[in-house]
Amino acid sequence: MGDKLIKEEKFKNFINGKWTEPTSGQYTDVINPANLETLVQVPLSSIRDVEIATQAAKIAQKKWALVPAPQRAEVLYRVGLIMKERKESLSQLLTMENGKVIEEARGEVQEGIDMAFYMAGEGRRLFGQTTPSELKDKFAMSVRAPVGVVGIITPWNFPIAIATWKSFPAVVAGNAVVWKPATETPIMAFELAKIFEEAGLPKGVMNVVFGAGSTVGEAMIEQEDIRVISFTGSNEVGRNIAGKCGQRLKKVSLEMGGKNAVIVMDDADLSLAVEGILWSAYGTSGQRCTACSRVIVHESVKEQLEGRLLNEIAKLTIGNGLDESIKVGPIINQDGLDKIKRYIQVGKQEGAKLLTGGYVMENGEHARGHYFAPTLFTDVTSDMRIAQEEIFGPVVSLLSVSSLDEAIEINNSVEYGLSSSIFTRDVNQVFAAQRDLDTGIVYVNAGTTGAEIHLPFGGTKGTGNGHRDSGVAALDVFTEWKAIYVDFSGKLQRAQIDVE
Ligand code: UN1
């Protein structure tokens, strides 16, 4: 069924409004992780392709910035309408290239649609500030100015949503974009570029350069005309990008993962907590930056929670996400699977107790595909690597505590600070926790996933470098504040000196 949705077998880059072959002439295969079938071929672009795209973007941006923002926003509005019309086919394609189950794929496409309409609204706001001047007959204001050409680098785990979090604010603010999508998930990039084209975005404002490894990303950093790099992906790659951008005084926005915990207090609604943990830990096979990979439970309800979780985990259906009855899809690729396997060994060696899962599923319907059994470790202590490092798979570590203070201390004792959650009915604990949990996102009585696009998305510490995706905060990444002083006194007035 789904294969008919794929219209091109060999993708091209989208540069200056034209579908262009990579100058290298080289391609690589893109594999469906649910059945290992080849879906499409994707260009392996070179530095030259990035140069061409950047120059096209530079020229296009100059004109685009002069289009009134409400008109720029109308393009995004049309993008949103087309995405809405194609929601089902986009979702199926997303499931095929990424593996996430169809219900979640629909949710992700919806995030993109929401982002389009939200950012279209920004076209009529893009608020600046007016500020009194210290001098008479002088007017002062600050406005958001586009930065010019921006580079965005997006991951495979949310190939369309994250692309919209970055490209939509960039475009509405008057920038042009050079976009390097993840090698594993080019179909969403291809579809989104087509939608931009159909919506009437002028040529050169959005350019897609496909690639693998670091060639395209590094070439983007080297381009003087690319003034901002916005990246979501691994910590290692993000730190490398930050170093290179730092040397070049290039603004960089990083979002690099999490080690998110659900705290379950002794007064929690346990059924709700189980549902929240299940959804945020095993949904997307744990391959979300926001995925729950630690459960910090009050010792008095530990055994009860373990029992209930085991019951529910046993009911999870694992397989090809196009089948509506499947709850957990495959892992993206062999490397992802190998990494998870290594962490299972680490957990066992560290003395954690494996309650369920911990193995690659290789029999029957799972023989062709990258499937990993939903896994629960208990008796984990916070110093163990499985409780500290991001695994990016369906693996949960359960740790027990005797107080809220201890739970918060453990929550905050990891390198990352993206998302956290607490299940309790005690209003005092709720307010204490929302203040003390050191993460960019805090949930009360819900799991660690499910951020809405009109709020800031990002985290503290090793999760990023202080910037946020989506929400109005995303505009800070893609605009520069410009201070403007208009003196209508008719004489030279010197600030700080000619003040009466
Ligand atoms: C990610 O995993 O990088 O909050 C993005 C969520 C989704 C986005 C996750 N809305 O889980």
Automatic annotation (TrEMBL):
<dbReference type="InterPro" id="IPR016163">
    <property type="entry name" value="Ald_DH_C"/>
</dbReference>
<keyword id="KW-0560">Oxidoreductase</keyword>
<dbReference type="InterPro" id="IPR029510">
    <property type="entry name" value="Ald_DH_CS_GLU"/>
</dbReference>
<dbReference type="InterPro" id="IPR044638">
    <property type="entry name" value="ALDH7A1-like"/>
</dbReference>
<dbReference type="Pfam" id="PF00171">
    <property type="entry name" value="Aldedh"/>
</dbReference>
<dbReference type="InterPro" id="IPR015590">
    <property type="entry name" value="Aldehyde_DH_dom"/>
</dbReference>
<keyword id="KW-0520">NAD</keyword>
<dbReference type="InterPro" id="IPR016162">
    <property type="entry name" value="Ald_DH_N"/>
</dbReference>
<feature type="active site">
    <location>
        <position position="255"/>
    </location>
</feature>
<feature type="domain" description="Aldehyde dehydrogenase">
    <location>
        <begin position="19"/>
        <end position="484"/>
    </location>
</feature>
<protein>
    <recommendedName>
        <fullName>aldehyde dehydrogenase (NAD(+))</fullName>
        <ecNumber>1.2.1.3</ecNumber>
    </recommendedName>
</protein>
<comment type="subunit">
    <text>Homotetramer.</text>
</comment>
<dbReference type="InterPro" id="IPR016160">
    <property type="entry name" value="Ald_DH_CS_CYS"/>
</dbReference>
<comment type="similarity">
    <text>Belongs to the aldehyde dehydrogenase family.</text>
</comment>
<dbReference type="InterPro" id="IPR016161">
    <property type="entry name" value="Ald_DH/histidinol_DH"/>
</dbReference>
